[in-house]
Amino acid sequence: MLRAGAVRGGAMLALARDGALSAGAVSALARFGALLAVVCLLTISVAHADPHDRDRYRGPGPRPGWDRMDARFHHDHYYPSRGYYVRELPRARVIITNPRGRYFYSGGVWYSPGPRGYVVIGAPIGTFVPVLPPYYTTVWVGGAPYYYANDTYYAWRDSDRQYEVVDPPDEQAANTEPPPPAPSPNDDVFIYPKNGQSDADQARDKYECHKWAQGESGFDPTQANGGVPPEQANAKRGAYQRAMGACLEGRGYTVK
């Protein structure tokens, strides 16, 4: 198009030299040629614009296609519905490949290749991701944290150092408020080292007695409610403290 404008400009100058056009006509045609060049440059700029600019939506309300409000647990974020197609993926994405297929994960939304581009799907259970969505809600169930976004629950796995997509926990028992701090293994227990045990010996003895008492009583004071049903917590806690005291006394401590 630029070349065509240049040709037209050359033709106009030739006509001007030959006297076929008046000075006013030459001036008007020259302005037209300049305008044509500007239009061409704008067309080229749009053609080379970042195709992901449309992902950075700045308008009011949800972006087009992201019309499903997830209000569970007051999460209150918009996501595209399952089955929604996009021609191009967001730039910030994680590629997940496992025996079940190839997936793309971005902003809490999961995509899979489809016949018309990429289709929004539900998160595959058992899949691991290195990061959580930028917006998530922490949900506590039985003292354990889950991370929720877009109808999906994630749980941290120490063994893999990643987050796993997991089945929904018992939502009736879910709470967005964190549980109270777990008591230390020696709450309400006062210990005196009768044999002059060092700090290192005391720490080792307390830990080993804690593990033994936990196994004997079935109560773990580092978990909410000791990891037992609430109606059993008081009785199990008492059994744990008695076992803890007996173990420490057997190692040369006075326990009160």
Summarize the structure.
This protein has helices at residues 2-18, 23-47, 199-217, 233-250, and strands at residues 68-70, 77-79, 85-86, 94-98, 101-106, 109-114, 117-121, 128-129, 137-141, 144-149, 152-157, 162-166, 191-193, 253-255. By secondary structure, it is of the alpha+beta class.
Plain-language structure description:
A hairpin with a 2-residue loop joins strand 4 (94-98) and strand 5. The radius of gyration is 34 Å and the shape is elongated. By secondary structure, the chain is an alpha+beta fold. The protein is 31% helix and 23% strand. It has helices spanning 2-18, 23-47, 199-217, 233-250; strands at 68-70, 77-79, 85-86, 94-98, 101-106, 109-114, 117-121, 128-129, 137-141, 144-149, 152-157, 162-166, 191-193, 253-255. The protein has 3 domains: 2-47, no CATH class; 68-173, no CATH class; 191-255, no CATH class. It contains 4 helices and 14 strands.
**Main β-sheet: number of strands, strand sense, barrel status?**
5 strands, antiparallel
Strand content: 15-25%
What distance lies between the first and last C-alpha atoms, to the nearest angstrom?
A: 93 Å
Indicate the structural class. Answer: alpha+beta
Number of helices: 4
Strand elements, count: 14
Low-confidence stretches: 1-21, 38-55
Radius of gyration: 34 Å
- Residue share in helices? 25-40%
pLDDT average, as an integer?
76
Shape: elongated
Quaternary state of this entry equals single chain
Strand order of the largest sheet: 3-7-6-5-4
Q: What is the H-and-E element order?
A: HHEEEEEEEEEEEEEHHE
How many distinct domains? 3
